[in-house]
Amino acid sequence: MNQFSQRIFVAGHTGLVGSAILRALRRQGYTNLLTCSRAQLDLTDQAQVRSLFKRESIDVVYLAAATVGGIHANNSYPAEFIYSNMAIEANVIHEAWRHGTQKLLFLGSSCIYPRLAPQPIPEAALLHGALEPTNEPYAIAKIAGIKICESYNRQYGTRFRSVMPTNLYGPGDNYHAENSHVIPALIRRLHEAKHSGAGEVLIWGTGEARREFLYVDDLADACLHVMSVSEDCYRSVTKPMVSHLNIGSGEEITIAMLAQLVAQVVGYSGRLVFDLTRPDGTPRKLLDSASLGKLGWRASVTLARGLQETYHSFLRAEQAGSRQQPARALDPVSRRLRGQFQPAPSLAHAYADMRVPY
Ligand SMILES: NC(=O)c1ccc[n+]([C@@H]2O[C@H](COP(=O)([O-])OP(=O)(O)OC[C@H]3O[C@@H](n4cnc5c(N)ncnc54)[C@H](OP(=O)(O)O)[C@@H]3O)[C@@H](O)[C@H]2O)c1
Asked: Mean pLDDT across the stretch 126-150?
């Protein structure tokens, strides 16, 4: 079969990552793409997932559907984070195997590595240390997803691959005041400060923590690259029980420099004031992406360009009046979960050493 006519299911196509994977597939000429809205298909429902795989003859799956959120959401909905992510992974991966799907890509995340992992973080660091307590239920579920893929590969010879992206940003991100990651949070706050004429904006922490960021279209490109390499190539840089690949840009930046860069892009000329009463989180978080480099992939979008593209898409959505991104930002987690789960009572006392969510 011509690879461009393969039936490809992108699960989570409305999300930051899934929408970028869909764009990348279309750009590369894939036409036989399958997407389902959550109203059509709840991936936590085993019967619905089974019926989809029975009905459709799916060759390849990109599993970018997940319950994702910042520290506040992780603390408020730990049951939902562990249950829904485990259910989605178990349902999709198992049904993919049952129905003979040839290939599947599972998305992990750099935040599921141990809290005190060596820097830059090698793939082998997974499960070699205690997890960050604030997102432990989420991390356990995502680690389970990687291990489900590995186990089916080992027992049934499937070709299910996993990737571990660094912090992502780009069009379609979540701009919620409490639940967003650092880049969308900065874009929104500095944009609002520019329009309200605020003379200064508070930034959490000292600004000295260093982080790595990857533009989401680069991530999507990397995902397609990982899926395109032969099994021999993939095996040459992974192991049966360390089967995931890190995806990072390899570039680090301090939060202070990042805030200055976002201010430039947004056109905010007020003062950036660092709130030293807030935690910095881990001083450095960088992935070791050498294995992916051996497969011939490198990031191509610089942070400056990626931030400009992201801000333009934020403005386009705002100007179009659809407020698509801010709408996604209206607390996507609690919007999704309303009526299903009760938030946990405040766990603040249990997280005296809480880390910021980036
Ligand atoms: N964002 C990052 O910085 C980052 C970094 C590293 C790794 N990742 C990984 O990338 C993956 C995707 O993250 P994201 O940032 O793209 O998340 P996102 O923007 O919140 O998108 C999640 C997607 O999953 C769908 N979904 C969730 N639960 C579902 C269900 N029960 N049934 C059907 N669809 C469901 C959502 O649909 P609705 O639109 O209907 O809600 C949405 O399309 C995750 O595995 C995450 O760990 C993300």
From this structure: 96
Alpha-carbon distance of 107 to 67, in angstroms, equals: 12
Using CA atoms, how far residue 3 sits from 60, 228, 233, in Å, is 10, 10, 18
Ligand 1 pocket, Cβ-based, cut-off 6 angstroms: 12, 14-18, 38, 42-44, 64-68, 84, 88, 107, 109, 142, 165, 167-168, 181, 332, 336
pTM: 0.92
Q: Pairing mode, if any, of strands 167-169 and 200-204?
A: unpaired
State the catalytic residues: 138
Q: What is the mean pLDDT of the segment spanning 154-180?
A: 91
Beta bridge partners of 169: 215
Selecting from 3.40.50.300, 3.30.70.360, 3.40.50.720, 3.40.50.11460, what CATH number does the domain 3-351 have? Answer: 3.40.50.720
Residue 293 in this model has a pLDDT that exceeds 50: yes
User: Given pLDDT bands bounded at 50, 70 and 90, which one contains residue 106?
Assistant: very high
